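Input (structure):
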């Protein structure tokens, strides 16, 4: 392989070290790991359930990673929003496992607390990212390249 790289289409992928600065990613990664450990102890005839909760749990940090690789904050914001869906699925599966007496109360409480904290932090990340975005231009502003009011003022 040569020493040159085509960087024209590279994404903002800085690896796990950069992501580790995002609390929402760290918590969701912790949740995915704890769900993985839990899934290994479920009965073998419930592999479908194990696969479902694990898929949902790993989808949360995976969506944050995917969003982080995007080129703008607006694009990034879409992916934590998507991550909220699988996080809610994890909440349901934990509820189901508890009702089916497949996990004990202590494990349920710990995982539910981690899931709740992950959700709150994810929401905070979305809120702070949204607050840092510049205002969206209207279609007329985009077409004319200037604020609508200035354009109308020149006509009078």
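Output (sequence):
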């Amino acid at each position: 392989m040569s020493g040159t790289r085509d960087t024209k289409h590279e994404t903002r992928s800085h690896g796990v070290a950069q992501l580790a600065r995002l609390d929402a990613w760290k918590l969701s990664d912790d949740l995915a790991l704890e769900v993985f450990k839990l899934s290994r102890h479920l009965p073998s005839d419930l592999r479908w359930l194990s696969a479902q909760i694990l898929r949902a749990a790993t989808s949360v940090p995976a969506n944050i990673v995917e969003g982080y690789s995007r080129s703008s904050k607006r694009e990034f914001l879409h992916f934590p929003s998507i991550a909220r869906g699988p996080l809610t699925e994890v909440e349901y599966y934990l509820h189901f496992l508890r009702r089916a007496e497949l996990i004990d109360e202590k494990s349920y409480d710990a995982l539910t607390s981690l899931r709740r904290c992950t959700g709150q932090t994810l929401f905070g990340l979305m809120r702070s990212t949204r607050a840092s975005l510049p205002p969206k231009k209207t279609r007329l502003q985009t077409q004319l390249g200037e604020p609508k009011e200035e354009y109308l003022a020149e006509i009078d």
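Notes: Residues 1-13 have pLDDT under 50 and may be disordered. Helices lie at 15-19, 23-39, 47-68, 73-99, 105-131, 139-144, 148-155.
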